[in-house]
What does this fold into?
Amino acid sequence: MKQDLLTFSNWTPEAMHKLLNLAVEIKQSPSSYSNVLAGKSVVALFEKPSLRTRVSFDIGINRLGGHMVYLDSQGGKLAGREDAVDMAANLACWADAIVARVFSHSTLEQFSAASKVPVVNALCDKYHPCQALADYLTVFERFGKTQGITMAYIGDGNNVTHSLLIAGALLGCNQVVVTPEGHECDAEIVAHAKKLAEQTGATIVESYDVSAADGSDVIYADTWLSMGDETPLADIKAKFMPYQVNEALMESTGASYVMHCQPAHRDLEITGSLIDSDKSLLMQQAENRMHGQNAILTQLLSA
It folds into this structure.
């Protein structure tokens, strides 16, 4: 029976740890996995533009011995040409998996229902599971564990935050989410993450006050405007500037490292000097996108 990865919401702590350990192993011994996708093709369908997701999947699939077919639904004039269910059913006739970076989670659900091959969420409006796996691989490499580490996310509650909460709860990583009023995470997703956290002893705290991040091991920043959001920056800058991740915040919280999923806007949500500092894990996160995604594809396709 095929297995999709649309979100980690229905995963167990054991399954999450197993996937993380596989990502560690693939990164440390890539030659041992150089043929797991031999003879297999993966279609990558993108409704949204990308740098890290597209390149890391393309090169990663190649390193596993597979072949990636990239489809730009906007530039390739595929958008609106046929129903999502028909597109997914057709792609499944040829491909061994479908990787999709889409605007709406409902599109992924339609793909999943129509496709006989695994569907991987490369980003949607609700979740970004591939990013979360890469981030916790980075945390594991820096601290030797995820259990008991505290990550503080500061900024707009969004798809990245949701997946960090879910995966972090499964891995026992304490979560602090600090947002301006009106920019909170989805309440249902937070409630579900708290239920998952009960299994691992992780804590989840929500706040509007950046002082809630005091004592955190890692500070996590993200763009104030999600891709596709056309709200003028000037309209939100005043509200978000008090939440800028900068050197003063790192010092006051005592955090050892700063993370950001990128693209980062220097001297807006995070200072450029902090990005370039020895506290920055941004490039390690970016590299780990490939290793985490390779673990996902290995698990889904090498059975």
